[in-house]
Amino acid sequence: MLELAPETRGLFKLNVKMPFKFGNRSMEIDLFANSVQIALEVDGYYHFQDQTAWRRDRRKDLVLQMQNILVLRFLAEDVVSRLSEIFSSVKQALQHQRNKH
């Protein structure tokens, strides 16, 4: 959907390796828009299976925020059932980031 909409076409790249580490390897973001510094993370059920995975995601968010990257997290199941709501949130984040600059 991001590639179909004019306002987001070409902005987000899939599985982007960042130029900084998270733990002992390069951080990877599910979808990243470099020009507006927005990271989209899609969390499947395994992200909530144990507290360690949940805590890891929170640490990842902090590292990204310290790099001035806005992080939006969505449930994988919502990508299907609530796609318009997610897209609305992404557009709102884009507007916010563009207004900052």
TrEMBL record:
Pfam families (UniProt xref): DUF559
Organism superkingdom: Bacteria
InterPro entries registered for this protein in UniProt: DUF559 (IPR007569), Restrct_endonuc-II-like (IPR011335)
Residues of the DUF559 domain: 29-94
Name of this protein: DUF559 domain-containing protein
Source species of the chain: Nitrosomonas stercoris
